[in-house]
Write a structure and sequence with these properties.
Largest sheet: 8 strands, parallel, barrel
CATH class: Alpha Beta
Distance between the termini: 45 Å
CATH topology: TIM Barrel
Shape: globular
Number of helices: 10
Strand order of the largest sheet: 2-3-4-5-8-9-10-11
Structural class: alpha/beta
Strand content: 15-25%
Number of domains: 1
CATH superfamily: Aldolase class I
Number of strands: 14
Amino acid sequence: MAEGVDPVRVVASDQVVITAALTGPIATKADNPHLPTTPEEIAASARGAYEAGAAVVHIHLRDSDGRPTADLDIARRTVALVEEACPAIIQLSTGVGLGVPYEERMALIEVRPRMATLNVGSMSFGAGEFSNPPDGVRRLATRMAELGIRPELELYDSGHVELALALISEGLIESPVTCSLVLGVKGGMGANARNLLHLVEQLPPDAIWQVIAIGRANLAMTAIGLAMGGNARTGMEDTLMLRRGVPATSNAQLIERLVHLSAAVEREVADVQAAEELFGLSKASLTAGHAGAAR
């Protein structure tokens, strides 16, 4: 950590950008019947999350059987419907799902969302393997830069921070970087405050970050991240429960809970314009996104 840098990072203002992770690649309607899976359901859920306070909507895609997909037609339809439903910033997942080939996942950015995730390294992921080969990661980072898409680096372990720093040093990612610190996935770092602090201490001082905690750890770790000055994410990708024994009935319900939590630690919820300024999203990127979705 750089000398004199406080490990409790403070964002540029007292505002917090809230992201709604609407669907994810793992849960099904059998786990929670309110999980949005079709393009129409995802768009409606995005609108509800935006109205509840989310400035960013993080989108995974599902096929007609509810399975994770990188189908470009589904991607274009989903993005177009979300754009029609609300003005939230669309962040498209290039993680997609463990069984989807990397080249298909890479192609999703040709839809030209304003933001997209960039998973920096391969790892064990539960009982499976999450493949993100070094050459593929660099090609994806290069193409995202060419298209003016803002990458969000997904970091599941301390070694992933080193990989992210290498991408910055190679000029493939511009500073300030945007990162998600993912805790609680079996194969990555456990969801506890000590691990979160360790990850934050390794980031560049100007990094924009949020904590993503999976399952039961979602609320507690999000609260710690908020208190440390990070942005925040919740949604039915991260947790299907509003509280123990009480399933969430919508993404909006989870966002509302996070808005109340933000107020409790005196963090003002950022609107879309404030989030655009924080992430450095230009009007040109908005135009590119609409052009991509219309293809």
